[in-house]
Amino acid sequence: MTNQRYFFLILILGALTALGPFSIDMYLPGFPAIAQDLHTSVSQVALSLSSFFIGISAGQLLYGPLLDRFGRKKPLYFGLALYVVASLSCLAVHRIETLIALRFIQAIGSCSAAVASVAMVRDLFPVKENAKVFALLMLVLSVSPLLAPTLGGYVTAAYGWQAVFLALGVLGGLLLLASFLWLPNGYTPDTTLSLRPRPILTNFWTVLREPQFATYALTGAVSFSGLFAYVSGSPLVFMDLYHVEGKVYGWIFAFLSIGLIGASQVNSLLLRRYQSEQIVLVALSCQLLTTVVLLGLTSAGVLGLGGMVALLFVFLSCLGFTSPNTSALSLAPFTRHAGSAAALMGALQMGAGALASLGVSLFDARSAVPMVALMAGASLLALLLLLVGRQRVTHLVAAAPGVGGAMH
């Protein structure tokens, strides 16, 4: 594979991976405007974020078997087309309940891109390069938190929040066209796989019984749910509690994302000397320490805007180390069931994220404590899952150069 083709392939896969996050981040600055136009509260608008997470979680379980049975591209086309229709339908909503429902459908469409892109990493690249490729995908993915909220803030201010969904519909259409024209086929459909519920559940159970998958997929999902708590709670925390404008919030959100982006790229360098499982353990420990400090200062009411931004930056940096390594370690043992494994991993991640988002939405409190408490709880539980689960992994399948052998 030439360097130019390698770069172009990473760009398309990264853009597909970023579609869901872009759909989340871009409309966040518009929460107050949506609440005003639909005669509801910001907390109720946040439920449209929770429904999006639920849709992604459920949709990934749907697309996993379809990707294995029919190949990667046909289910991807269907999902992207559904995404475009749902996005454009959001232009005409007049009730918050309608927006919540359409966001669920939009998520069902977008998660086809997420599952297909992850499965294609396993199809198109050697296993030993997967952690590096996932880190590169996170670099493309990082465009979302850098551009989406800032762009969303300006679009909302200039044209109204409905224009955000118009832009998302156009983005989905462009990705559909790019996937059709330039995305290669790297997987032969397995026509022996049944789409009946029982065989599908059996495949998922087979994947979940793999100790390495169970350990790192669950650890990664719970750890990453802290990010969803932050995303759901940050509009209230920054715009209501710290009284920053929507445009300023977009810039803060973009700045904080630099931590996630930078760490994911430093991770590629660390993989030359350290094993993925070593990086995960250290990063999770730092993540827990950061959230405990953040929770203590927030509860005491002594944390200003600068301190909040600084500690959230460290928290997101820890996630930048954890996420690509847990993803690579989760998928490394699979070839035949890579699509189902990618789907189940994504479903676990988004399911945990939906619960965290819903937890933040349920607390219509004038405090950052609910958001921070959920972040700290997720970090603690993830570390416990890692410490307990790794004892069951008797042989670790390589996920990066230098990774292998038994885990003790």
UniProtKB/TrEMBL annotation:
Membrane-crossing segments per the record: 45-64, 76-94, 100-121, 133-155, 161-183, 213-231, 251-271, 278-297, 342-363, 369-388
Cellular-component GO terms for this entry: plasma membrane
Listed PANTHER family: MAJOR FACILITATOR SUPERFAMILY (PTHR23502), POLYAMINE TRANSPORTER 2-RELATED (PTHR23502:SF132)
Keyword Membrane on entry: yes
Keywords per UniProt: Cell membrane, Membrane, Transmembrane, Transmembrane helix, Transport
PROSITE patterns the record matches: MFS (PS50850)
Family, as annotated: Belongs to the major facilitator superfamily. Bcr/CmlA family.
Lineage top rank: taxon: Bacteria
Name used for this protein in its record: Multidrug effflux MFS transporter
Membrane topology, record value: Multi-pass membrane protein
Cell compartments where the protein resides: Cell membrane
Originating organism: Hymenobacter aerilatus
Keyword Membrane: yes
Pfam families per record: MFS_1
Domain Major facilitator superfamily (MFS) profile: 9-394
InterPro entries in alphabetical order: Efflux_drug-R_Bcr/CmlA (IPR004812), MFS (IPR011701), MFS_dom (IPR020846), MFS_trans_sf (IPR036259)
GO MF annotation: an example: xenobiotic transmembrane transporter activity
GO biological process, alphabetically ordered: xenobiotic detoxification by transmembrane export across the plasma membrane
Lineage: Bacteria, Pseudomonadati, Bacteroidota, Cytophagia, Cytophagales
